[in-house]
Amino acid sequence: MQFDVWSKGLATLEADCLVVGVFEEAELSDEARTLDAATGGRLAKIVERGDFPGRAGETLLIPDLEGLKATRVLLTGLGSQKNFGRKAFRKALSSAVTALNRTRIASAAFAVARPSFNELDDYYFGRAVAEAVGNTLYKINDLKTSRKGKTKPPALQSVIAGPVRSAGASAAKRGFTHGDAIAAAAKVQRDLANLPANVCTPTYLADQAKALGKSQSSVKVTVLDEAGIRKEKMGCFLAVTQGSAQPPKFIVMEYKGPKAPKAPIVLVGKGITFDTGGISLKDPGAMDEMKFDMSGSAAVLAALTLVSTLRLPLHVVGLIAACENMPGSRAVKPGDIVTSAAGHTVEILNTDAEGRLVLCDALHYARRFEPAAVVDLATLTGACVVALGSHHAGCMSNDDALARELVQAGVRADDRAWQLPLTEEYADQLKSNFADFANIGGREGGAITAAAFLGKFTEGLKWAHLDIAGVAYQGGAQKGSTGRPTALLADFLIHRAGR
C-alpha cells in the first residue's frame, strides 16, 4: 500500500474516489463543504433530503459528480459532532475502507474530518490512517477449500490523506510508515492466533520465530527443546507440558537495533497453543476458543517483527514458553508440587491456572539479560474479563512508572489498558500448607492474585504484566483474533525509541 499526504485542492485531486465525512446532524464537515461548493451544492442536497443521515459506520458511494477530477465520492458517517473524537474518527476510516474494498477502486483521497490537533497530531493522524487501512483489509486466514487459490489482493493500492500542512507532512509520513508496520505486525499476531491448534503447535511457533530470524539479520533466534528446558530447571513449565504429546519449545528472540542501549526490554509471551485446562477440565462449551491462549506469544512475535522492520534503536528480547495443556495419564494433578527455575516450590491446586506456571519460569530466565524493563503478555484469567470486559487489558506492575508508560501508550494507540492494584495482601492469598505458595488464591481478585504469583518471580526487576484475556480475541459469530495489544506495545516501543 502506498501512502501520501495532500494539503489543498481537494476537488482537483486525481484519485478514483474522494472520501469525506458527514455528521449525524446532516452537517457537512469542512472538507465535504469544499466538495459541495465544487459540485454546485449536490452533496448538501443529498444530505438535506435524508439520503445519508451521517450515522457512525454508514457509507454512501456517489458516482460521477460534475466539478471533480475524481470519478466517485464516498460519504462516511461521523456520528454526532458533539461526541466526535478519535474513536469515531477511526470508525469512519474503517467503514470507508470496508466500503472501498467492495469496489474496484484502486486509489482514494481521504478527507475525513479529524479531531483537534491536540487530540490527533499529524504523526498520529498518519498512523491512524495507515493502521485503519491495514487492519480493515485484513483477511482471516481460514482453511475453507472454496477459497483455496482464489484469494485476491485488495483493489485499493494507493491512499492519500489530509489536509496536512506542509510543516506537518514529514510527521504524517512517518506516521504512515509506523502505522503500516503496526498493521503488518497485528496481521502476524492475528494469523498465528487464528490458526487451529493442530497447525499452530509449539513447534510451529518456534518455526515462525526461526523464519523471522532468517528474514531479519538483526534478530537472533534460539529454541530450547525439552532437554534444554529441563537443563534450565524449568519445573513449572515442564509440569504443564507433561500431559501433552506435543513437545514444548522455549523460544528466545533477541533484536539489537542501531545504537541500541545495552539493557534490553524483555517481552515475555504465554504460548499455550491449546488449553483444555488439564485435569481441571474446562467447560467444553467454548473450548475451541482456547486455541487463542497463545495470543501473548503471538503478540511478542509481532513486536519483534515490528522493531526489526522499523529498525528501531532498541535492544529487545522476546521470550516465549510454548506448550499445550492437556489431560492424560502423565498430566500434572491438583495437589502436585513442582519446583520452579527460581527454586520456589509451587503447589498446583488448579491445573487450569497453567499460564502463570509457564510464565514464572520464563520471567526468571529474563534475569540473565539484566533488563531495563520486563513486560509479560498473557490471556491469563477469566477474572480479568469479568473485571474489565473486552475494552481494556489489565495492567499490573511492581513499578508505577512502567505501568503508566503502558497505560499512556494504550491511550495514544486507542488500544487501552487499565492499571489494577498489586499490593502485598493479594500475595497472601497464595499461601500453601505444603509448598512455598500455591498457584491460585481463590475467586476474589483472581486477575490480581495471578499477577501476584508472577510478582514472586520478578523481585528486583522493573516488571509489568498485561492480562489480555478480554481483548486479544472475540468469540461468537465474529470469532477471531483482534490483534490487540500489538498497537499498545508498538506505541510503547516507539516512544522508548524516542521516535
In CATH, the architecture of the largest domain is 3-Layer(aba) Sandwich
Query: What would the average pLDDT be, to the nearest integer?
Result: 96
Order of strands in the sheet with most strands = 8-9-11-10-14-18-15-16
| CATH fold name of the largest domain | Aminopeptidase
Secondary structural class: alpha/beta
| Low-confidence segments | none
Find the count of extended strands (DSSP E, 2+ residues).
20
The largest pleated sheet is described as: 8 strands, mixed
- As for the number of domains, it is 2
Determine the number of helices (DSSP H or I, runs of at least 4 residues): 15
Radius of gyration: 24 Å
Percent in strands = 15-25%
Distance between the termini: 22 Å
CATH superfamily membership of the largest domain, which one?
Answer: Zn peptidases
Determine the fraction of residues in helical runs and give it as a percent range. 25-40%
Shape annotation: elongated
**Can you tell me the CATH class of the largest domain?**
Alpha Beta
